[in-house]
Amino acid sequence: MSADEHHDDHGNTVSAWFLTVSWIVAWSVAAVAIIFGGDLITWVVVGLVASVVLAVVAGVMKKAGLGRKEPRPVPPTREEWEAANKKAVA
Prior knowledge:
This is HGxxPAAW family protein. By secondary structure, the chain is mainly α. 72% of the residues lie in helices and 0% in strands. It contains four helices and no strands. The longest helix is centred in the middle third of the chain and has 27 residues, at 40-66.
């Protein structure tokens, strides 16, 4: 299995936005706690654990139908792009 086959692409979906926003919130809370005198190691561990839990939740959301519904789009090869570009110019 290649890295591309294993990549879990959420796309522009509810699960992707949940993951993005929740990670921003989790790491912002950890950063503010550190800035205000919290223990660095403790809050980094809290941020990492929260990130893993939130990623699992996003994966469950994707499996529940809130993720990408069709296969991930594949960009054209250079040859395909050049052929299409020549048709458009001509």
